[in-house]
Amino acid sequence: MNPSPIGIFDSGLGGLSVLREVRALLPHESLIYFADSRYAPYGEKPERFVEARTLQVCEWLVTQGCKALVIACNTATMHAVQTLRERLGVPIIGVEPGLKPAAAASRSKVVGVLATANTLKSAKFNRLLTSLGNESRFLCEAGIGLVPLIEQGDVSSEAVRQKLNNFLTPMLEAGADTLVLGCTHYPFLSETIEDLVGNQLALIDTGVAIARQLARKLAEFGLASSPDAQPTMRYLSTKDAAHLREMAAALLHVEANAETIAIEPAPPTE
Ligand code: DGL
Question: How far is CA 242 from CA 100, 258, 260, in A?
Fold first, then answer.
């Protein structure tokens, strides 16, 4: 039985959609949530920055005693998970857009994929896409501009609705019946998407699958905490603790013990 915390990392608030599922499945585990909101969005930053920054923050989380890390960010996983697994001595659980469950769920075999520009560009994502190419036609769209709005707590304004309409209308016209939410920020848009498209698109969010994968890894490595442990929760933001506290209350209905933390990005190395 290991009472140490699990680190959950995202470029910002999106990973809270994963934390929600981890808390539901593993309520006795202590968690440290790390929102790198000062440097979000990662989806449009140079790929080398995303890799180096993810490694830097995850190394720091290990120094805080984390026994496992959830990279609750598709973009960071796509660009850094291999390096993290090579360099860090704790289990790393990454996330990837749920193309496989979407292909299985789709009847029309036309699947929309909304993810960040960096995720869609990555070699890891493109390998996944190629491996499933026979199972469905995937219509991939970069959700440019959505993450900054969600970071401000805006999940339903006219600006959000307009962007979603622009992304989703061509998918519907091409016959898509399933939509992969390929960025952990996007599950917070589920209600707005449902309001816009009704039941024309089944939404695929991998939060529950990630929590299950974490539970399996903890069991495999003998790292689970005791069922009667008193878990602690820390919520860290590189931008603004008060905003993270507000957002956790609005998005998850939890009272977050939030702190602002300064970790300057390391200068680029050649
Ligand atoms: N939440 C992140 C993801 O799952 C990235 C959002 C961003 O910083 O662009 O891809």
Answer: 38, 7, 8
